[in-house]
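Record 1 of the preview.
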Amino acid sequence: MKKILNYFSRGEWLLWGCSTAAVIISFVLFDRESWLTLAASLVGVTSLIFAAKGHPVAQALAIVFAVMYGVISWQFAYYGEMITYMCMTMPMAAFSLVSWLRNPSENRNEVRVNRLRPGEYVFMALLTVVVTVVFYFVLRHFNTANLIPSTISVATSFAAVYLVFRRSPMYAAAYAMNDIVLLVLWTLASMEDIHYISVLVCFAAFLANDLYGFVNWRRMEKRQRNACAGN
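->
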């Protein structure tokens, strides 16, 4: 227990505590029924604080979150979100888990940060366009609610999971953009059903955690680079 307590800094415990408190309070105020939403939100924010530290357990929790969130999205006919998380985010989280376990840094509690070459960003961009176009027609076929934001979410989600798999600090920036899109989606949902405000608060907490993740991965990258230079 002491080892776990010391693993996170006070600021990280504060971020996690505020995130979980916001999720629980919004659930009590606006939902009180969808326990799956509460569970998914708590798993999600816990996954993100581990991801910000570069710990592989983040990807194991991401698999669990993807399943839960897929069910929640299906309930509101956000088939884009459901298909994205069940067919893309979940398997990519599994691949990322393997990748992170195989590429530890000298500090065994964090993954080795990878710096991508410009050519790989071009490849990722082209691949993202192809995936997004395919998903657009799939989502339109299923009469997905709020089609355009849902399609944009596919693009940002794919870029994010690709960067997670490749261990790039930019994964957090991509997920932050995805969080903004999801805030729009669930704002629209909350206008129809107040219960979904709890999901909205969840993604607001996700945004704060992803922004911190981007900052911390930059620190990790610099620290690991300096360690290599010192050796």
